[in-house]
Amino acid sequence: MAISVRGKQNRILIALLLAISLAISISTYNFTGNLKDYRALLRNEAPPGEAKSYKESVRDNLQLVLNISSFPGIAQVLNLFNLNFSSVEDEILAAVEIAPAILASPKPSKYLVAIQNSAEARGTGGILGAYAIVEFYMGSVKVIKTGSNEPLYGTSLKKIPVDVPTEFLNLYGNNPAIIQNSNLSPHFPYGAEIWLGLWKKEFGEDLDGVIAVDPTALSYVLRSTGPITLADGEQITPESAVAETLEVAYKRYENDNKARKQHLVDIMDAVAAKLNSGGYSKVKMAQALRDGIIANRILVYSADQEVQAKLAKVRLGGFMSTEPNNEFRAVIQNIDAGKLDYYLDRSVEIETQSCERTRETQVRVRVTNTLKSAEGLSAYVLTRADKGKPDFLVPGSHRFKVFIYGPVGAKVVSVSRENRIANLGGASTERKRPIYVVDVDLAPGQSEELLANFSGGTGKISFIDQPLVRTTRVSISDNC
Length: 480
Known about the structure:
33% of the residues lie in helices and 26% in strands. The protein is of the alpha+beta class. The model is unreliable at 1-51 (pLDDT under 50).
């Protein structure tokens, strides 16, 4: 197909129309602009065979939009107006494939929405701090229940409630059997399946999947809904959402942790009310989804094997592939039970050392406790519940583990720690990837540099960031 667009104003107009059309499509499942027809399809009112052609038509139309949006002139305009969605092309097309399976089920599909508290780091982001149950049915989405993690503590077991590989048990033991540690692994399906298993044990209900988000993703959503106002008159804005939920609330409710958790639930309820009423900008919502996906702050797991197979191929699935790659990760695991990951800064430098038949790559990770002083912080934030902690603790010191992951099939060649020649850490594996594991304890203002050399890896170097409060600064020098 030949497309000719003449004139600067015409190019801008067409680019904006295409982008807005695409944005609305992503945020409402209204892939052809006619929700009534789509719902008819979901109710199986379309003649046999038309459903498939309909889905293919939707996919082809979206692919055309994405292809056009990549044209140099149009792409520049889209970037100018923050309307370029080409970076989530795979996720958009996957959504076309999986939406009917989720929305066209003969019964409502219920998903657990897990709000991850990134002030206490876990493999997929943060500890499960609050939750919601959302229902998908015939093209509509409804929030039917919200709550804090308090009732879920009763689901803690001595044994993980789902089958996991021996390798997983060797690395994490049965610690993930308690709700606080369920998502220790950065491979999202592990945590999601354990959450669903724990929910089943506690409430006797089979849920259809999990959607994980965090306060930063929530702040993106508030760009589309606008500020929300709570019952006491407090206003939560896109700019204040992260600090309010992960810093301010701990001080305000210093002596009433249940009230703090309820405060988070109140925020969720206010956002849910706006979403249920349609009180949001569809274009800005699409931008929120895009930004959340890019930052790994929105993850989805489905108990439907066909749907999950499609999610496993895109970032939205949080899947840690076992196929040959040259992918690196630096994952923080909070082990002191405090909330000081809010102040943790991370930088990662990845550099090729050799391009011979077996590649060699060096990974340099620097972690910094940016907290200047523990003064004014609650005891809950400063918790040191870790085993084997020092007899003398500097207030505000933070202990955590760093897991540096190499590519599939690679090996750890050598490691080092800044200013240390002993207690260098250990090694392990997960999903065919070598890991350098280090126990770190930093007083306020302290930092430490960790270094790992890997041999192996296939293809271009990439890095997958763990979604914590502060985004990792990443530098990659791929010389092969």
